[in-house]
UniProtKB/TrEMBL annotation:
This is Plastid lipid-associated protein/fibrillin conserved domain-containing protein. GO terms for cellular component: plastid. Residues 66-243 form the Plastid lipid-associated protein/fibrillin conserved domain. It holds the Pfam family PAP_fibrillin. Belongs to the PAP/fibrillin family. It comes from Carya illinoinensis (Pecan). It is found in: Plastid. Keywords: Plastid, Transit peptide.
Amino acid sequence: MALKVYTTNLGFQWNPTPTFSPIFKTRNLRYKSPKLFESSSSIRRNVTVNGSNVVDEQQQVSFNEQENKLIEALIGIQGRGRSASPQQLSDVDRAVQVLEGFEGVQEPTSSSLIEGRWQLMFTTRPQTASPIQRTFVGVDFFSVFQEVYLRTNDPRVSNIIKFSDAIGELKVEAAASIKDGKRILFQFDRAAFSFKFLPFKVPYPVPFRLLGDEAKGWLDTTYLSPSGDLRISRGNKGTTFVLQKKTVPRQRLISAISTGTGVREAIDEFISFHQNLSRDETELQEGEWQMIWSSQVETDSWIENAANGLMGKQVVKENGQIKFLVDIFLGLRFSMIGKFVKSGKNLYELTMDDAVILGGPFGYPIEMESKFNLELLYSDDKIRITRGYNNIVFVHLRTDGSSKK
């Protein structure tokens, strides 16, 4: 690369945890050079898989056609629904309504399939949600689960924030009872941290008795899959929840990136899974693609990062044009336009040579040139994994909502 610059209520939740910045935040860290993935047998040349294998991926964990449509709508939504676009919310709502009218498990509260630990994949968060609700699902960097155990001497529904395998988790428990075939009544009564480095639990001092009705509620299960792997529930505050016991590789990859843990392993699993499905050649798909992860931290120079595609968004057009877009600050954006030419199976040569700083209708041109190769490791209508500048592995999500089916 040559660079020249000539310019001067899972039904219920609660909010004791701190707020964290989104995963797209850029870190100006000093350049390092880890040889990530170069020795991995799972990420090799010519292992690109096209989008036709997405259904195969989902069928591996026994989801039916209508459930697949909901899962497909969920992929690409960050923060369990917090940052969903209107189109994404509409797609999820439509898929939810179809499943709620579809024949799932009758009287789910009486079925053993509802028991166990469920991972929260998506939730709507109405403004009317209680303080308990507003916080629990608002934590993007931790995994969120719900445990349901109704067939015991002490029936309980618990919400869990899992910090990491090394640190531990926070569990908020509620005494539960079955009202009918769909509805569970609950009342929060205790919460505690379970840290891996301590042999005992640390109680979290929440005054549940003083919360009164805020600590009570109900949870309706409106759809429970016959496989017992997917559940849709609605809470007394009007919140909709989508939970899964089993997730497909794409979901595990995005979840790992969101929490910042186990990303290398998730990519390795993802590529390995699809390696045996197809070796078809695919094209660099047009659309807007937001970078959500790379195997290399940025250098000290943000403009060099932007020119090499280490941050921001990529806009790909069918005519062989590609644009890098990076929001800087106070409405200023960096834009760099170039061309891509196919040089081999799933391989492209990129030449970026038209850079400008944009501020409203005005632009300040910068004389720059950046050349590097791009290899498609995986691509479908929602997610793309590439190897680009300096052998760095990138994960992008499609954000324009206009994917071709």
